[in-house]
Amino acid sequence: MEILKPSPPNSTPLTPIGFLDRAATVYADSPSIIYNSTTYTWSETYLRCLKMASSISSLGIKKNDVVSVLAPNIPAMYELHFAIPMSGAVINTVNLRLDPRTVSVILRHAESKLVFVDYQSESLLLEALSLFPPNSKHPLVVLIKDDSPENPSSKFGRNYEDMILNGDPNYNWVRPGSEFDPLTLNYTSGTTSSPKGVVHSHRGTFIVSMDSLIEWQVPKEPVYLWTLPMFHANGWSYTWGMAAAGGTNICLRKFDATTIYAAIRKHDVTHMCGAPVVLNMLSNVPEGTTLDKPVYILTAGAPPPASVLLRTESLGFIVSHGYGLTETGGLVVCCTWKRKWNGLSDVEKARIKARQGVRTPGMDKVDVIDTETGKSVQRDGKSLGEIVLRGGCLMLGYLKDLEGTSNSMKNGWFYTGDVGVMHPDGYLEIKDRSKDVIISGGENLSSVEVESVLYTHPKVNEAAVVARPDEFWGETPCAFLSLREGVKEKPTEKDVIEFCRAKMPHYMVPKTVVFLEELPKTSTGKIQKFVLRERARGMGASKMSRL
Fold it and tell me: In this structure, is residue 402 part of a structural domain?
């Protein structure tokens, strides 16, 4: 047949920013944001974002300039996910728990022209700016005062609400010229000490936003509780996704288990996301705690132990598990549930849910390959290989890092650096980060598998396993543990080792156990294994490791 060419009516660039425009029509009077005593509707949110976009533009911010944000999960943080790109700029959300030096490095590397900062992070930004080289140009700064009565005087004159007040309600927001125009700049964090600037396009973000709603089967007008930081991969794309679904965003500046349960009951929350540390927080509650209605919770960031999944679901949560990276913009592998699994025992269900799963509908292909041969590993649930991805939501690349981009995106794949296996049914399971695989006596062992056993110990709250040098075996597992609150009789190193010996092959049993008050983590709940690896190396090589 005749090959027809695209034309302007059918080739408008894809962008998730249009979700807000639509929400203002379809869900005009429905609540968009609830935060303390503040409630906005979708028509109000659209107008606020439009006016903010015009004010950003009036400051001289041009197309593709980077605008950074240091803020928790408050209304301004949500609005800026639309307002900044509506001005033609690129949004860069910065992890609030980073030290001033790293924040300074990010702002300089990104060449940020404007920074929005929450009043509680003003001192962090001031110190970061003080570390700029002499005579270098500082970005403009806008203070977000929030609705808290605790609003001290600021060194920054520009105010967020004033910018909205003075904005143009008839501003013609900037559409992308190409759907491959940059939309976000996110810096990797947590499991490595060298963050990279990940650039995502309007097209990729549109795809992953819609894909995430479809895979999780999010209905129209959900009530979404923001327990996942919006600065972490833009809230796994649900910042934009909630506009597409007309959802209600319940914003929390900070939270603990008590705050989460109170918010769920007050607002009839239906959906929430979080790293496994959030599941652990929710499940470590007094006996008898249950939900009045089921709440869907999506977890990712690290393979959650089956025991934690089981405890969480026993409280009334319906847990879904997925896998993604900063470089994918959201979750691209999910443990899509099969009806035939409904008849399994709770323990077996939890074990299956701990697997990462299959590619989401918007992904082209996911595989586990042998990095030496480039071929797929056997689908036996045992053969280890590197997880590789291919799909439209993958990053454009790393900012100012051609070598890093080419090393990770080659041979038609994005190489994740994660080690996994493929099961006979085509479901993927992560076994480790490549650098976290422990090679003991020539045997490759998964720290994740050892951690899963440790999490079944009734007194263990958190567990992380890394390699410790060993004079005989090369490396042996070293376990770092924190204990549950209220534990009266603390276990010893010997107790933990004997517990593990009864549940796993002896070569996998930790030879060293270290108890900590709390494991080092990022703000998104990822345990910083590079910190623990350094500590384990600092202990020196084990001289006698008996199996």
Answer: yes
Domain boundary among 201, 221, 239: 201
- Interval 357-380 mean pLDDT: 94
| Residue 298 structural domain | 275-434
pTM of the model: 0.83
**Which among 172, 181, 189 is positioned nearest to 206, based on CA atoms?**
181
* Residue 482 vs residues 77, 191, 466, 467: alpha-carbon distances, Å: 33, 19, 15, 18
290 and 319 belong to one structural domain: yes
**How many structural domains compose the chain?**
3
The reply to whether 451 and 404 lie within a common domain is no
Residues contacting 439, CB < 8 A, separation 6+: 445, 467, 474, 475
The three-point CA angle 504-534-491 to 5° equals: 45
| 532 and 512 within one domain | yes
- As given in the structure block, the two tokens for residue 75 are 């209304």
Report pLDDT digits (tens) over 449-503: 788 889 889 999 999 999 898 876 778 899 999 998 888 899 999 999 999 988 8
d(C-alpha 365, C-alpha 35), whole Å: 39
Is residue 216 a contact partner of residue 298, using CB atoms and an 8 Å limit?
A: yes
- Can you list the positions of beta strands (E) in 3-150? 31-35, 38-41, 66-70, 90-93, 114-118, 140-144
Asked whether 198 and 326 are in contact (CB, 8 A), the reply is yes
Residue where a domain stops, chosen among 153, 169, 201 = 201
CB 494 within 8 A of CB 479: no
- The predicted-structure confidence for 401-437, as pLDDT tens digits, reads as follows 999 999 999 999 999 988 899 999 999 988 866 667 7
Nearest to 184 by CA among 81, 287, 48, 293: 81
Pairing status of strand 158-159 against strand 140-144? parallel
Q: Look up residue 282 and give its two tokens.
A: 């929710």
- Supply the CATH number for residue 483's domain: 3.30.300.30
Q: DSSP character for 376?
A: B
Domain-embedded: residue 105: yes
pLDDT value, residue 193:
47
Contact assessment for residue 260 and residue 461, using Cβ atoms and an 8 Å cutoff? no
Q: Which of 434, 37, 425 has its CA nearest to residue 266?
A: 37
Element (H, E) at 102: helix 100-110
Regarding whether 179 and 153 lie in a shared domain, the answer is yes
> What is the amino acid identity at position 169?
P
